[in-house]
């Protein structure tokens, strides 16, 4: 099913380190190739509401094999995917979710981060992805 | 309740063939006149998130006996059906869902397709409809 | 993600044939290794309520890599898994769901069948499994 | 809200070690005093259906500040809490969920474990609790 727990924990730890480095408090979720949760961490004091958002970002990124922020560009009023967020039990389509690929480019899972600005969420998610590169 | 499984499978196979022809990977769902699922197929490697969207497109098209893309023109901010997507456990109102009618024009079901651009989704859904014409 | 659409459709056709052979009308669902739907068919006149049950049986069988009927033996009042059905958005723990394995014994998906007695549901699910052996 | 991420991760690692020691594959969830998820880990190959059950066990244990198995004794047919599992979006009331207390006896969170027999689930949950004693 793609990503291993060892890889997922490595990504979570890298994301936590980046989060601390930029002085934020994050919820971090990793799903596997089947979009099922593998690992999760909520930093002390991080927003409670981000618990669900981090998981939905990770699932959204895997559901469509794309960064959540890219999907969000298409879901605005008048856009081709307007209100896609109503599907799949709720999607999150702003930045902070990224697919995770193996060396061959196959998607093995995804990371979702929530707890700060979407710019910071994206930076921390990218740190998780980079840890497995 | 309208469409038969034999008809539904014929529409699915036609949609799969069109999808392959235009080099896409689709989720294809057929519902009957009661808006209940009759047949479904997810092509290998198609987006996981489109599994739910294809079914919601088919249901949406039958719920209102209209192409989903036509409904979406009315659900934009300021439009008469703004945020109708919150009803019925989640609707999808961009293209890719089409009603299926019999020779007399009676709606016997609907097809929903998801997995590529909404233009491609619509083309593949139309191929499913045409297979039963 | 395990089972292919080609394999799934083969299992569905075999289940349909067995269902006709024993004079029943079934809903048949196939999920992949990630417990996500791959293929579905509802025979004309089959119970509408079995549409959801067939899918839940398939997911339940994959969730625990076991026949649903075996799980049900443990979920009775006083049993060790009493009321496990409240998890995962609803499980079905009576017969009709079976894991599907490859030649090496790895679970690649599952089949769920609903529409008749649980004995018949199981027989038809087994026919689907056998078609891939 | 009680337990820290550092404590939660310590409990998860202890539970993973005990799980490996007794040759099982577990899903392990930790919630805080607010019954909100703090940390989660799914061991490679652990049942997918246990993902949700581990989290529900942890929440159930915190909701009532009691071991899930003790609650389950009261939820049987004829019992005082019959079918309480219908509340709170689904409870799990068989063993594998335990409250976590601080040195003063105050409940600071809970652990939920799922992936084997309920006896093994309980043993692994206890190992998580003991790691924080």
TrEMBL record, chains A, B, C, D:
Alphabetized InterPro entries for the sequence: GlcG_carb_metab_protein, PduO/GlcC-like, PduO/GlcC-like_sf
Q: What is this protein called?
A: Heme-binding protein
Q: What is the species listed in this Swiss-Prot or TrEMBL entry?
A: Spirosoma rhododendri
């Amino acid at each position: 099913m793609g990503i291993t727990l060892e890889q997922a924990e490595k990504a979570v730890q890298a994301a936590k380190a980046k989060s601390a480095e930029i002085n934020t408090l994050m919820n971090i979720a990793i799903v596997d190739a089947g979009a099922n949760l593998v690992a999760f961490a909520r930093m002390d004091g991080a927003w409670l509401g981000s618990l669900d958002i981090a998981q939905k970002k990770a699932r959204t990124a895997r559901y469509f094999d794309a960064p959540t922020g890219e999907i969000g560009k298409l879901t605005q009023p008048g856009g081709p995917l307007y209100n896609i967020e109503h599907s799949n039990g709720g999607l999150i389509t702003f930045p902070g979710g990224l697919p995770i690929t193996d060396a061959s480019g196959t998607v093995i899972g995804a990371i979702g981060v929530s707890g700060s600005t979407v710019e910071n969420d994206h930076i921390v998610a990218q740190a998780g992805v980079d840890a497995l590169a």
